[in-house]
Amino acid sequence: MEQPPHLPDQRTYRGHDGLRQALIDWPSEWDDYRMEILDISAVGPHVLVTVWQSGRGKASGVTVEDDYTFVHEVQDGKQVRWLMFATREEALEALGIEE
What we know:
The protein is of the alpha+beta class. Helix content is 21%, strand content 47%.
């Protein structure tokens, strides 16, 4: 799982253990963390999931609300890669796809 490069503490997580750690790390940074799925679409071997996330930073107390698009690459029915982008347009551009 690769987080967007614009995040201050951007990280890449690898393997099953890495994915489990990512799912622990990200929500643990926030109070009142929420995520809502806005859209799911298949694009070739990828599944694009646009979400709205919100939360208040535990360290800063700052409230953040934003949309992100996750790209899940699927091979043989299994997720093999998860990329995060600030916008759907950035995700499609990274995949070399025009909408």
